[in-house]
């Protein structure tokens, strides 16, 4: 399915693997050729199983599960681990859902409800609605992007570190070579041209702005630099813009302003407070629309119809949703102040999204544990759930913790007090 974009040739069509797999169960006497094929096939199956078995946990979700198990056993837990708004579906969306329940909510077209696609296209500059496809959350969106753009075994894809772990984990599960591009606080955790150059030849680059976990918002100059570097080198850009709308110093710019052929992933999970509704959208280059639609048809048919109804109505809930952003702003001050009072001051800029990414070597390396160990101890000793930095950065994350301030202000304040009183 790998497709040509920005002048790059399609590479997966007709490759050796797909030709051999055409008929792996053909009946007939064993021949040396068939024996070789059988052993090749077994090896491929085993390789795939090993890749799947090697999939690391998404530590934020694993911490969430441990926290809810403790809650079920009667413990009080303060949740700062998962990036999940604590607010419900916007009111107008809930009304629309109630009204829709008497109508048949069947499959929609794979690409989604026409009206929703056209409303979303109208929010972008120069994007025709046929380039917007509704997907089952950003998670489905970037998986579709990876399946469309990259080839197992041959593609090299750059991922910014620290970054959202599921890009890395899904790319690895698909057998795509990962190239970590470490960024650092000296440049507010945004990539520099030198860091991109150091990654060498790439087929793709995954970016996210605002970023999870650092909250970094790429300015126009950074997006222009990324776009021109990728254009020069024929690198496909996948841009996760899921935290657009949640920024504290003016709106975040889109990669589409600099590279109209970027594959953009977005979602109703965060700004729209709809994580459980599993609905998002992608803006894809013209040449890929048909391929992405066919993938959707085959992989999961369509995003849930009722969620698309909710999403369409939620587009008119701006006032209510901007109110949530103001609450995040207040929570952000509360968290930054509370962490400072607990001696945690080395933090990323937090200009967007709803996370504080903090460097805590005095609570990890200095006392002989890593961030996973620290997370476990805080959970069991304090009832505070936060996410270990190793989720986001395999090299340096053992000294970092990520705190989400999407939840309730009271919980954030109390969690900081408990952390301040913690005795290693
Ligand atoms: C950067 C980023 N992308 C994607 C996702 C997943 O989004 P969705 O719920 O739309 O699948 C998350 C969830 O935390 C995220 O932080």
Structural descriptors:
single chain, 424 residues, alpha/beta, Aspartate Aminotransferase, domain 1, Aspartate Aminotransferase, domain 2, 2 domains, three-stranded antiparallel beta sheet, globular
CATH superfamily of the largest domain: Type I PLP-dependent aspartate aminotransferase-like (Major domain)
In terms of structural class, how would the helical and strand content be classed?
alpha/beta
Number of beta-strand segments: 12
Reading the helices and strands in chain order gives HHHEHHEHEHEHEHEEEHHHEHEEEH
Uncertain regions spanning at least 5 consecutive residues? 4-32
Q: CATH fold name of the largest domain, please?
A: Aspartate Aminotransferase, domain 2
The portion of residues assigned to helices is: 40-55%
Shape: globular
Q: Count every helix, treating DSSP H or I runs of 4 or more residues as helices.
A: 14
Small molecules in complex = pyridoxal-5'-phosphate
**End-to-end gap:** 52 Å
CATH architecture of the largest domain: 3-Layer(aba) Sandwich
Biggest β-sheet: strands ordered side by side in the sheet: 2-8-7-6-5-3-4
Summed over residues and divided by their number, the pLDDT gives a mean of 90
Into how many domains do the coordinates divide? Answer: 2
CATH class type of the largest domain:
Alpha Beta
Please give the radius of gyration in angstroms: 23 Å
What proportion of the residues form beta strands (DSSP E)?
5-15%
Largest sheet: 7 strands, mixed
């Amino acid at each position: 399915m790998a497709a040509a974009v920005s002048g790059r040739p399609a590479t997966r069509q007709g490759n050796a693997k797909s030709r051999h797999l055409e008929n792996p169960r053909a009946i007939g006497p064993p021949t040396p050729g068939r024996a070789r094929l059988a052993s090749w096939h077994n090896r491929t199956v085993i390789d795939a199983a090993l890749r799947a078995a090697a999939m690391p946990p998404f530590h934020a979700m694993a911490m969430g599960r441990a926290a809810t198990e403790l809650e079920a056993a009667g413990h009080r837990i303060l949740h700062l681990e998962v990036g999940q708004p604590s607010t419900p579906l916007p009111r107008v969306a809930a009304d629309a859902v109630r009204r829709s329940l008497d109508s048949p909510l069947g499959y929609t077209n794979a690409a989604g409800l026409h009206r929703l696609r056209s409303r979303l296209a109208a929010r972008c500059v120069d994007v025709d609605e046929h380039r917007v496809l509704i997907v089952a959350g950003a998670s489905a969106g970037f998986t579709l992007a990876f399946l469309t753009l990259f080839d197992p075994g041959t593609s090299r894809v750059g991922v910014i570190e620290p970054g959202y772990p599921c890009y890395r984990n899904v790319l690895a599960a698909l057998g795509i070579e990962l190239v970590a591009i470490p960024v650092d606080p000296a440049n507010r955790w945004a990539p520099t041209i030198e860091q991109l150059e150091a990654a060498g030849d790439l087929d793709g680059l995954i970016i996210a702005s605002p970023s999870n976990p650092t909250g970094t918002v790429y300015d126009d100059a950074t997006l222009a630099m990324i776009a021109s570097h990728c254009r020069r080198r024929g690198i496909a850009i996948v841009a996760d813009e899921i935290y657009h709308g949640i920024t504290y110093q003016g709106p975040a710019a889109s990669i589409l302003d600099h590279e109209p052929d970027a594959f953009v992933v977005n979602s109703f999970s965060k700004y729209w407070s709809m994580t459980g509704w599993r609905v998002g959208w992608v803006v894809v280059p013209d040449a890929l629309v048909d391929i992405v639609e066919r993938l959707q048809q085959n992989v999961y048919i369509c995003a849930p119809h009722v969620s698309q109804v909710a999403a369409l109505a939620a587009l008119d809930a701006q006032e209510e949703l901007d109110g949530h952003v103001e609450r995040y702003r207040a929570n952000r001050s509360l968290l930054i102040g509370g962490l400072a009072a607990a001696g945690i001051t080395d933090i990323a800029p937090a200009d967007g999204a709803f996370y504080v990414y903090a460097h805590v070597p005095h609570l990890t390396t200095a006392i002989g544990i890593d961030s996973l160990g620290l997370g476990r101890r805080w959970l069991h000793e304090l009832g505070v759930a936060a996410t270990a930095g190793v989720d986001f950065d395999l090299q340096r994350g053992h000294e970092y913790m990520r705190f989400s301030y999407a939840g309730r202000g009271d919980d954030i304040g109390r969690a900081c007090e408990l952390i301040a009183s913690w005795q290693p």
